[in-house]
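FIELD: query
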Amino acid sequence: MAAAGMGLAAAAIGGSALSSIAGAMGKEDYLPLAGRKLIVQPVLAVGLSERREKTSWRPWGGFHTQQDITDEQQRIGKELDGLAGKAEFGLEIRPLITLNDKNKAVEVAKQDHDLLVIYAATSWVDVLEALTNPAKWTMLFVRHNSGPVYLWYEIAHNRYLRKTVDPFGQPGVSSQDVVVDSTDEMLWRMRALYGLKNTLGKKMVCIGGASGWGVGGQKAPDIAKNLWKMDLQSVDYPALQTLINKARQDTELVKRCNDEAAKLLKQNGVSIDTNPEFLGKSFLLTQVFKELMQQSGTDAITVNNCMGTIMGASETTACMPLSLLNDTGFSAYCESDFVAIPSGLLLHYISSKPIFFNDPTYPHDSMVTLAHCTGPRKMDGQNLEPVKILTHFESDYGAAPKVEMKLGQKITVIDPDFDSKQHLGFEGEIIDNPFLDICRTQIDVRIKGSVDTLNEQTRGFHWNVCYGNYLKEYGYALRKVGMNWLNLSV
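FIELD: result
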C-alpha cells in the first residue's frame, strides 16, 4: 500500500493548472486558511404557569413572573459574551431566542446553526424534542445554583434522555451533552465541536496518492472519505517533478528561498549539521507545496513515499518543508498515512496548535519514546523551540529538524486504530530530548496511566501529539462520529 497513488493523475489539478501554478510560483505567499467558525444558536425554553386551586399547577423552577424571564435573558447574554471572549477558536454565537411553543421550536431546529444550546428552564418535553435536530449538534444547559433553578435540572436524564424508560432514547444527544451551571463546561465542548466541524470534509493534497500504514491501513483512505468525509486530491510524482523543475528555473524564487534558509540559520537556537544546500531546496519545496495547496483551495498536504521517491524529485527530503508548514499554521504530514491523519487534523483544530505526528516505541517503566523527522518547532502555537538541522535518519540525506521540545511540558498523546472504531489517548509529560539513532526529533514521555493497559490496548501505528491536555475535547468529538474512546489518564 505504500506505493498507492504513484500512477495516479493529478486528480483535481490538471496540466493547464499545473502550468499556471508554476507561472505564479513565488509571486505572493499563500497563508493557511482560517478555520470555519462554529455557529451556535442559544434558545431559552421557558414559560409561565397559571395558578389553579387545589391541584399542582406549577413545575419546578424559579420562573414565576415575566421579570424572572427578562432577568434570565440578560444573565444568559452576559454569560455567553464572557464565554465568547474566552474562546481561542472561531465561534459565532447568535442572538438568544426565547420560546415555549413546539411549532416555533421545529422552525428554529431547521436553521443553519451547527450547535443549538437549549437553556431548558420550564418548557415541557415536546418543546425540547422539537428543538433537537439529530442532523445537528445539541447541548442542554440546566441551572442548579448559577441562577434560578431549572425544571430540567430534575428531569433531563429521565424524561429527555431516557423517555421515562431505562435505555437512552433521544437521537443525537447523550449524557455528555448536558451541562449544569458551568460555561467553562460548555466552552470545552464547543472547542471539540469546532475541531470536528473543521475536520469533517477536509480537503487534502496527497503527493503520490492517499495511503495507509501497514496491512491494517489499506482501507484507511476509504475510511477517511466515508467516515471523515475527506476530499483527497492526488498529485502524482511526474506532475510534482514538473513543478519543481519550473521552480528551479525561477532565479528570483531560488534566491528568495536561499535567503530564507540563511535567515533561519541566524536565528537563536538554530544550528545545522548537514549541507546547507539541502535547506535552500527545502524552502523551494515548501513553496511548491504551498502553490499546490493554493490551487486546491486547502491548507493541508501529505507526502507519500517520503522515504524515497520525494528525495529524487526534490534533491532534498520532505522533512523540513513539512516542519516549516506546520509552524506557519498548515497541516502537513509525511507518509500519507490516513490511519492517523484524520486524528491529527482533529487534534490540531481542537488545540489550535501544530501536531507532532510520530512513531511510538514500546512503552515501559511508565515512559515511552516518540520520534519522527518532521517535528514542528512552534508546538505551543507561538514560540519556536530550539532546533538542530540534520539529515533524515534512514537515508542520511537532506534536511530534517531535531526539535528540542520543552521539558516538563504536559502533552496530549493520541493512538488511532486501523479501523476507526476506538482511539486511545493519555496525558504525557516530556522528560527528555534524547539523541538515539532513530528519527531526529525525539521525546521521552512520562505516561499518566497504566502502561500495562496501554500495551494491551494499543492499535494502529502512528501517534499524534500536541502541547496541553485536550483529552476531554477529543473524546467528546470522537463520540459524535460514532467512535469509541479510551482515556488512560482518568
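FIELD: remark
Residues 1-12 have pLDDT under 50 and may be disordered.
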